[in-house]
Amino acid sequence: MKVFKDRLKKVMVDQNINQVELSRICGVSRSTVSKWMSGDSEPTKARRNEIAEAFDLPENYFEEIVIPKKRIETLTPKEVAYLMGMGVSTIEKGLIQGTFPWGYAIRTSENTHRYFINAKKFFVTEMISV
């Protein structure tokens, strides 16, 4: 129940709504919302999905694991190297060392690296437009 309660509170803060407004949006009594907020009860899975949809969140937002509505767009080290005018090995080393705020490297069981570069964060951080 803690996952639902905590995420509901976050949504309310992010959306700047109070319990009265939430009860109106969800079509439930204020006492029901109060029980949700305290963790004394939790709506059904179907109702949780409806609440998530009402706030334009992923359907499973109130579940333990959340799958985003759409995939995160990524870039390869080669693409980033080209855009930044650097060598691919420089970008890869920076990702391994944790230098860049928009990506990281993971060491695989084969002792190589896999790279993840968040395209949106990259373009915002580096102020590059395409």
From TrEMBL:
One of its GO terms (molecular function) is DNA binding. Residues 8-62 form the HTH cro/C1-type domain. This is Helix-turn-helix transcriptional regulator. The lineage of its organism: Bacteria, Bacillati, Bacillota, Clostridia, Lachnospirales.
